[in-house]
Design goal:
The chain is built from 7 helices and 2 strands. It is mainly alpha-helical. It has one domain.
């Protein structure tokens, strides 16, 4: 999602796949349109995600790409770091004021679920569901305030 709550990329997986395992693949498909001419950017300025995306692999990928991350730590990660003492390292930076903007993402998901076919997933094939999801995203982009 961009800062205004419009989807930038879509990735459909099976119901038995954790979302966090596909986070890097999703970030690689992001194309952020520029205000003027030029090709779209492939690197967002910041990623705001919930605790499910708090893993060393995702944080490392974001750090290598110089993308700021606002992801709270899971309780088990905090406990493991505390158990290791000074060898546990520093906690990752987290800004609660920035994290409050995550409601924009939740509102976009709720707007997508207003489409009955998206909310209930009647389609058997993933390609059909992804097509319907792409059309719903396009409609959100067309309805946006200029």
């Amino acid at each position: 999602m961009d800062g205004t709550g419009l989807p930038l990329a879509v990735l459909v997986t099976g119901g038995n796949i954790n979302d966090c395992t596909q986070a890097i693949a999703l970030l690689q498909t992001v194309r952020i349109p520029r205000a003027g001419r030029g090709r779209p950017r492939t690197r967002p300025q910041r990623v705001i995600a919930d605790k499910a995306y708090s893993s060393a692999a995702i944080r490392g990928y974001l750090r290598r790409r110089h993308i700021a991350a606002t992801i709270p730590e899971r309780a088990d990660q905090v406990a493991n770091r505390a158990r290791r003492g000074s060898g546990g390292g520093r906690p990752p930076a987290f800004d609660p004021a920035v994290y409050r903007r995550r409601n924009v993402i939740e509102r976009c998901i709720n707007r997508l679920k207003q489409f009955k076919g998206i909310a209930t997933r009647y389609d058997k094939l993933a390609i059909h569901y992804r097509s319907a999801l792409t059309i719903a995203c396009l409609l959100l982009w067309l309805r946006r305030d200029p």
